[in-house]
Amino acid sequence: MSVRLGLADTVAAISTAPGGGAIGIVRLSGTRALDIASGLFVGQRAPSAVPGGRFLFGRFTDGAGGTIDEGLVLVFRGPHSYTGEDVAELQCHGSPAVLNRLLARVLELGARAANPGEFTLRAYLNGRLDLAQAEAVLGLVNARSETARRQATLGLQGALGERVGEIGQRLTRALVAIQALLDYPEEGVPEEDREIPLARAQGDLEDLVATARAGQLASRGARLALIGRPNAGKSSLLNALLGYERSIVTPQAGTTRDYLEAQLELAGVPITLVDTAGLRETEDLIEAAGVRRAEELAQGADLVLVLEDGSSARELLPITTPPERCLWLQTKSDLPPCWHDEAYLPVSAVTGQGLGELREAVRAHLLGNAAGAEVWLTSERQADAALRALEHVRSARVLPDDLASYELELALRALAEISGRDVSEDILDGIFANFCVGK
Q: What is the domain partition of the chain in residue ranges?
């Protein structure tokens, strides 16, 4: 999809989720949206004849005048609509057969089938949303946790754009001061016009970049692998965290021979917990394959919970995962301990001891300092742009004035990418291709 093509067309799509439902919506947007809606709607008034913000009740008809369904038309007049264009929403019963027939009739009357994300793309191109807000729409649609929903809502309300705008104002102030100094070196530049804004901008960017990992985990979810020797308590811990028996637990070592996944929410982040086969040398081909798979899962996990049985003689695990991606747990803390290590968090799947502390430790590892931040970066694109802006600001603070001026121009350009004031067509195509049709 090219963002420059077809924006003069009227586009249409089913905007409700696939499958049956009580209500379904076919959305039209463009210069002919209300005329097309009038061509298939029979009621007391035509959609093209009423002001925006009106509901009309009547029949949706086919080309022969037969009734497709009864329903409502909601009329929006541009620029006071989601897309900034004239919009008609045809609300009918949510049967796939009804929706598909209604959409087919709309297309017969001259609308074009919308591309993925085209309604939101039009909202961006018509100035109704900046690019960060447009990405927040996708975040709301895909939100799998309360944290993801909250960040997407803040983004849609423009909070990220405002934060980026404040940083940009500081950089602009410093850039103007440097350029004035280059033009009029005898005048000098007060520190509050150059160094102070630069220092604050750098600090703000560092804080913003620090939220990137948390924002992406809140959006896509995190994978936590439970690793340990047989009978270390991995399956029991998984069941305890879930609150129900998902994994089979027996006293026999090697019960879990393949990995098992379960979903939950921890620290406001959607989590996939992965229970893996116990790590040990074995001649059993199936169990050995499970052990290899457990090691692979540990390497790919966002966080690894390393479990060691605190009630038996200690035998350290040969873990190759970087320590910063590991949490070390001493399991079976309800039994008399055979060893003690301050680096390990005691937990018991039987009594629940340490589970609250474990959840807090997971939260700290996944969210870091971002937990106290109001606004997060929620996409790799945003994080990349913010990091580049930060690197340019750092360079500007140590370079001569002429080079510093150039670095600040690059920093401002990188910041502009976040809100979409300076972004290529290829980037736009990539962003909106991730949207569903109808949004």
A: 11-129, 140-211+375-420, 218-370
Surface-to-core class of residue 73, CB atoms within 10 Å of its CB (0-12 exposed, 13-18 middle, 19+ buried): buried
Q: What is the pLDDT of residue 230?
A: 84
In CATH, the architecture of 218-370 is 3-Layer(aba) Sandwich (3.40)
348: nearest Cα among 378, 377, 405, 310: 310
The Cα–Cα gap between 96 and 98 comes to 5
pLDDT band of residue 56 (cuts 50, 70, 90) is very high
> In sequence order, what are the residues at sequence separation of 6 or more whose Cβ sits closer than 8 angstroms to the Cβ of residue 340?
330
> Would you place residue 256 in the very low, low, confident or very high pLDDT band (cuts 50, 70, 90)?
very low
Which DSSP string corresponds to 36-65?
HHHHHEEESS-GGGS-TTEEEEEEEE-TTS
Q: Which residues are annotated as a binding site for GTP?
A: 231-236, 250-256, 275-278
Annotated binding site for Mg(2+): 235, 256
Please give the C-alpha separations between residue 414 and each of 132, 243, 295, 420, 429, in angstroms, as whole numbers: 13, 45, 39, 10, 18
Give the CA diameter of the chain. Answer: 83
- Please tell me the predicted confidence (pLDDT) of residue 3: 45
Q: What is the DSSP letter of 20?
A: -
Tokens 């939260």, located at residue: 363
Annotated binding site: 27, 89, 128, 231-236, 250-256, 275-278, 439
The CATH number of domain 140-211+375-420, selected from 1.20.120.430, 2.20.25.90, 3.40.50.150, 3.40.50.300: 1.20.120.430
What's the CATH fold of domain 11-129? Gyrase A; domain 2 (3.30.1360)
Residue 79 preceded by cis peptide, ω within 30? yes
Q: Which residues are known binding-site members for (6S)-5-formyl-5,6,7,8-tetrahydrofolate?
A: 27, 89, 128, 439
Q: One-letter amino acid identity for 425?
A: E
Strand pairing partners for 263?
Answer: 272
| Bigger pLDDT: 11 vs 182 | 11
Residues above pLDDT 70, as percent of the chain: 87
The pLDDT value recorded for residue 278 is 67
pLDDT one-digit tens code per residue, 308-356: 998 988 877 777 788 888 999 999 999 999 998 998 999 999 999 999 9
Rg (CA), the chain: 28
3-class DSSP assignment, residue 401: helix
Task: Fill in the amino acid letter for 190.
Answer: P
